[in-house]
Amino acid sequence: MRGRQGAMATQTRREFVIVGSGPGGATLARELARAGRDVLLLERGEDHRRRPWYGTYLGALVYCDRMSLLFTEEGLNIVRPLMLGGATSMFCGCAAPPPDWLKGRYGIDIDDDVARAVDELEIRPLPPELRGRASTRVAEAAGSLGWEWFPQPKFMTPERSTEFRCTASCMLGCRCGAKWNAAEWVDEAVACGAELLTGARVSRVLVEGGRARGVEGTAGGAPLSVEAENVILCAGGIGTPRIMQASGFDEAGAGMAMDTTVMVYGFVDGPGTGAEPPMTWSWENAEDGYMLSTLTDPWLLYPLINARLGLRHALSWYDWHNVMGIMIKLKDDVSGGVFPGGRISKPMNPRERRRQTAAMDVCRRILVEAGADPGFIFMTPQRGTHPSATVRIGTMLDDDLQSEARGLYACDASVFPEALDRPTVLTIIGLAMRLARHLLSG
Ligand SMILES: Cc1cc2nc3c(=O)[nH]c(=O)nc-3n(C[C@H](O)[C@H](O)[C@H](O)COP(=O)(O)OP(=O)(O)OC[C@H]3O[C@@H](n4cnc5c(N)ncnc54)[C@H](O)[C@@H]3O)c2cc1C
C-alpha cells in the first residue's frame, strides 16, 4: 500500500487531487485509479482500522472532531469522524436508495451507478434471524397499527465476519468486519496506483484565471502545496464549504441540511434494541418528510446524551438492556450554515417542530403497541448526523458537480440540493461514480 502518513507527496503536479476519503472521495479515487489515471488522495485523518481503540468509546474520542463534542450553536450534537473512510467508519451501514426527487426535480440520474454498487457490495437486508428480536417486535407493532415497515438494506455482509456481533456499539466502528467501510475502496485505489497521504489537511484551493490550479494545506505539520489539473473536494458537509470559503467562494456554507435526528425511547420487560444491529427495520413517511428506524444509543453514550434531559432520564441507563428505541430522521429545510471562524448553526423552525412532534406521536403509539410502559416514553436531545447541502447543486455547482472555477468539483454530502431525509452513503457513491464517468469521458 502506498498510503503514507504526513509525508510530502511524491510529485508536486497531479492530474486529480481528491480531498477527503469518505464515500465520495474513496469512490472517485478507486474509479479514476482503476482507469489508470494519476490520483493523489489527501485525507486529514489517519487510518485507525487496525488500532486497538478502533470501534471503542476511546476511539470515538480519538477520531471524531472535538472528541465527539462538536455542537451547533443551537446545541445539536454532530458526530464527525475525521479518519480514513470518513463517517462510514462509524455509520450504521444502512444503504437507502437515492430519493426519487433527485432525478425528478434536478434531472440527476444515478440509478445505474447505484445498481452497480448494490450488486458489487451485495447490499441487502440482514437475514431475518439477524434483524433482532426487539427490532422485529417494533416493526410488527407498527405493522399492526397500519404502518408497514421494511427491512433496511445494509452495507453488511455477515459472512465476512468470523463472529457477527453487531450491536449499538457498532456505531463506534465495526470490530467484527461485517460492515463495509469506504476505506476499503481507498485500499483498492491504492492497489491500482493512487497515492494516499493521510494526516494531510487541505486549507484552500488555488484558483487562478477562473481555474483550479492546485491545493495548499499541511501534511504532518509541514506545509503542503500540490499543483493539480483537477481538484475534487470530498471533505464532507462541513469540511468542503470551509475549504471553499478559504478559496474565495463566499457563498459556500450559507445554509445547510442536517436530517435532524432524535431517538424515542420506551422500556419493555424483555430485551431491548441496544444489543441488536442498529437500523434493521425502517419506515418512510414521504408525505410528512421523516424516516423512522430501530435504534438505541450505545451503552456508555446513553446516559451522557440523556443527562441533558435531567436526572431521571440519565438514570434510566440502569434499564438500558430493556430500552426499545426508534430513531426519527426529519427532512429539514436548508437553514443556518457553516460560517468562517468555526461557527455552525442549524435552527429548527416551527414547521419542522410540528412534524417532529407528529413523528414522536407515531413512535409513542408503536412503542406502546410493542409493550413499552406508556408512563415513561421520551425523546432525546436533537442531533445532526448528516451535515449536508452546504455547497449545493444548482446554487454553487452545475449538474456535473463543477464549481464556477473550471476543474474544481465537489462530491460528498455538501452537494445535496436539499436534505436527503434518508441514509446518504449510497447516494454519494452513485454521485461519485457518475462524476468519475464524466471526468473519464472528458
Ligand atoms: C453515527 C453515524 C451513523 C450514520 N449511519 C449512516 C447509515 O447507516 N447509512 C448512511 O448512508 N449514512 C449514515 N451516516 C451518514 C454518512 O456516514 C455520512 O453522511 C457520509 O459518510 C458523508 O460522506 P462524505 O463523503 O460527505 O463525508 P465524510 O464521510 O465525512 O468524509 C469526509 C472526509 O474528509 C476528510 N476531511 C475533512 N476535511 C478535510 C481537509 N480539510 N483536508 C483533508 N481531508 C479532510 C475527513 O477526515 C473525512 O474522512 C451516519 C453518520 C454518522 C455520524
Key descriptive features of the protein:
alpha/beta; 11 helices; 442 residues; 6-stranded antiparallel β-sheet; FAD/NAD(P)-binding domain; 2 domains; 8-stranded mixed β-sheet; binds flavin-adenine dinucleotide
Task: Give a written overview of the molecule.
By secondary structure, this protein is an alpha/beta fold. The chain has 2 domains: 4-47 and 83-121 and 180-256 and 387-441, FAD/NAD(P)-binding domain (3-Layer(bba) Sandwich); 261-384, no CATH class. Helix content is 26%, strand content 22%. It has helices spanning 23-34, 57-63, 100-106, 111-120, 133-144, 182-191, 236-246, 301-306, 311-315, 350-369, 425-441, and strands at residues 4-5, 13-19, 39-43, 70-71, 77-78, 124-125, 150-151, 153-154, 195-198, 200-208, 211-219, 222-233, 254-256, 261-267, 281-285, 290-294, 323-330, 335-338, 344-345, 378-379, 383-384, 408-410. Strands 1, 2, 3, 9, 10, 11, 12 and 22 form an 8-stranded mixed beta sheet that branches. The radius of gyration is 21 Å and the shape is globular. The protein starts with a strand and ends with a helix. 54% of the residues are buried. Residues 19-24, 42-45, 79, 82-83, 86-88, 90-94, 171, 201-202, 234-237, 239, 243, 279, 385-386, 412-413, 423-425, 428 line the site of flavin-adenine dinucleotide. Flavin-adenine dinucleotide (FAD) binds next to helix 1, strand 3, strand 10, helix 7 and helix 11.
